[in-house]
What we know:
Elements: H1 12-22, H2 24-27, E1 32-36, E2 39-45, H3 46-54, H4 67-79, E3 83-88, E4 95-98, E5 109-112, H5 119-136, H6 143-180, E6 185-187, E7 205-207, H7 213-247
Parallel strand pairs: 1-4
Antiparallel strand pairs: 1-2, 2-5, 3-4, 3-5, 6-7
Amino acid sequence: MADTEAMESPSKELMTFASYLHNPTKSGLRAREGVLNGRRVQFFKGKSAINALVKAENGEVAKVSSREEAVEWVQDLLDFQLIVRCDKVGEGSQQLRINPMQSFDEDAYFAWLYEGSQLMTYLGGIGVVAVVLAGVMFPLWPSSLRKGTWYLSMLALGLLGLLFAIAIVRLIVYVISLGVAPQGLWIFPNLFEDVGFIESFIPLYGWDAPSGASADNAAPGATTAAAAATAAAPSSGTDSGAEQKKTN
C-alpha cells in the first residue's frame, strides 16, 4: 500500500478503491442520502465499507484479503479527504455534522466527498448543448424529421395524459372502496413509489393496510388466550374442590 504521508495526491490504486466503493453495483455498498453543511451527500457506515472490501461481489475476487487491510485503505480515503467522518444530528435524522476525530471506526458514519468519474457529467453537458442547438435549428430540419418529431411529441403527450388519467382513476377507485370496505383499494399501488418503471405497475392492485394492523391482528389472539385462561381457572378450582370432598 502506498505511504500516504509521502504523497501529495491520492495514488491511482487508492482512486481505484474509491471508485469501486462509490459504485454500489460493483461493491454492493449501499449509501444513504443525507445533508452535510447544507449539501446533499451520500453516507455509509464504516462496517459496511469493510464488508464490501472483504467480500467478493458478482463472482469477482475480494479487493483485500483481511479486515485489517480494508481498514487501512478506508483510513487512506479519510486521510486524502475522499470521505469524511460525520455524526447524525438526532436519532433518525438525515442531518449530518463533521466529527472532529477523523479516524476510522466501524460503527461510525462516513460521507462521500469524492464524486466519482466526471465523464458522464461532461457528456451530459455536451448532450444538453446539442439538444438546445438542435431545437434552435428546428426550422432548418428536413420535413421528414420535423414530421417524425411531431409524432414523437404527440406520443409523449399521450403517455403523459395516460399517466394522469390512471392517477385520477386510481384515486376515484380508492375513495369509492373506502365506502364499502374497511381498507382502501389502490390500483397500481407502487405507481408513485421509488421503484423502477416496470415495478411501478406491479402488482395490479393492492389493499391499503391500516396503521397499527399488526397490533389489531395480535389483539384477537391475546383476547382468546386471556379468555381461555379465565375459563380454565374456575374449572381448576372446581376440580380441586371435588377432590377435597372425595378425600373427606
